[in-house]
Request: fold
Amino acid sequence: MKKKKKNFMDLIPVCNPAYTWDVDKQGKVTVQVVNKGFYNWIAQKLFKKPRISHIDLDQYGSFVWQQMDGERSVFDISKLVEAHFGKEAEPVIDRLVAFFRILYQNKFIGYVKQT
Reply:
């Protein structure tokens, strides 16, 4: 029997609990990443690299980040982006898929299993 392939639009993204984040007055999200591990320790000591990196998201990324609640699918979030930004966000699906793939590859998000 052939394995059923998952549709990316049905996945439910969630923020990685290992990273903290906050929202400024303009609604922009900043994700704090603690640089751990031996190589990061060396970089911090020798090259004066920061212990915590601050990743600032733009207005689109900040809006999407705040919509990830563990219940909304990628499709649901795409509809919210369309409603909030309108034609500015076109092509919504392509941009959103690329954004989620980058976040996933860098371990900023994961996906919860659907029931």
Observations:
- The longest strand covers residues 29-34.
- The chain has a mean pLDDT of 92.
